[in-house]
Amino acid sequence: MRDPCIIRGADNRFHMVWTVSWKDRGIGYASSPDLIHWSEQQYLPVMEKEPTAQNCWAPEITYDAKNKQYMIYWATTIPGRFPATDTTGDGNNNHRIYYVTTKNFTTYSDTKLLYDDGFNVIDATIQPDGKRFVMFLKDETKKPVPQKNLHIATSNTLTGGYSKASPAITGNYWAEGPTAIKINDTWIVYFDKYRDHQYGAVTSTDLEHWTDVSDKLHMPKGTRHGTVFTITAKELTELQ
Fold it and tell me: Alpha-carbon torsion 141, 76, 129, 189, what sign?
């Protein structure tokens, strides 16, 4: 169980997805009313119709209030599908972002491509922002020039039409696993500085100009790629 993503759904339940292994063609799913008592874990074979798919990494969930459905999305490498960048990643990895939709976590749509901007991409996470959606993503390019940094893309619809990636919003270090929240007028994007074995954060009020506030973070030792989300004071008390 790696890269957990948790959101509070429209049904007031917490829904979680996660990476189940390095090389499976599916992801994990479970739900909870209180973050304490959880449903039975399910395996969702989201890439079963792609027999050469090498993996399903870092799934996330975003709720589409307009269409009253959830979108689950993740990164997968399918050898030869995007040949121009087949040699740019770690080993044979050449990821793009794929998705399914569901209204009830019982039946799911067919899997479709969500994001391809011509480079190796993983760790997408999407937040609504008024009438648009903001995707935070990692450029996973390693060769010939390493990127390993975070960017944003925007769309007026959750399931497609995302813009080209912005300039990098993170600095001269390798970053992954972004998770974002907007508090008042300020966006905070938390991420894993995984080669430095520490967490980082950047903030912005306009999604264009970013300030690194990593030195203000105090995180539990060993914290890795996860999710930030809001809960009530009562829910916190129950957890404590």
Answer: negative
| pTM of the shown model | 0.97
> Distance between CA atoms of 49 and 82, rounded to whole angstroms?
18
86 close to 80: Cβ distance less than 8 angstroms = yes
What is the distance, to the nearest Å, from the Cα of residue 156 to the centroid of all Cα atoms in its chain?
18
How many CA within 13 A on the CB side of residue 124? Answer: 33
CA angle, corner 17, sides to 50 and 147, nearest 5?
70
Looking at residue 234, which CATH number applies to its domain?
A: 2.115.10.20
Q: What is the pLDDT of residues 91-105, one digit of tens each?
A: 899 999 999 999 999
Q: For 107, phi and psi rounded to 5 degrees?
A: -115, 145
**Residues 28-53, mean pLDDT to the nearest whole number:** 98
Q: How far apart are the first and last CA of the chain?
A: 23
Average pLDDT on 133-153 reads 97
Cis peptide, bond prior to residue 146, ω within 30 of zero: no
When divided into structural domains, the chain yields a total of 1
Which of these, 206, 204, 201, lies nearest to 228 by C-alpha position? 201
Residue for token pair 């809001």? 230
Q: How far apart are CA 157 and CA 99, in angstroms?
A: 14
pLDDT, tens digit, for every residue of 8-17? 999 999 999 9
Q: What is the domain extent for residue 223?
A: 2-239
Edge to edge, what strands does the sheet with 132-139 contain? 121-129, 132-139, 149-155
Cα–Cα distance measured from residue 31 to residue 1, given in angstroms and rounded to the nearest whole number: 14
| Tokens 């520490």 found at | 198
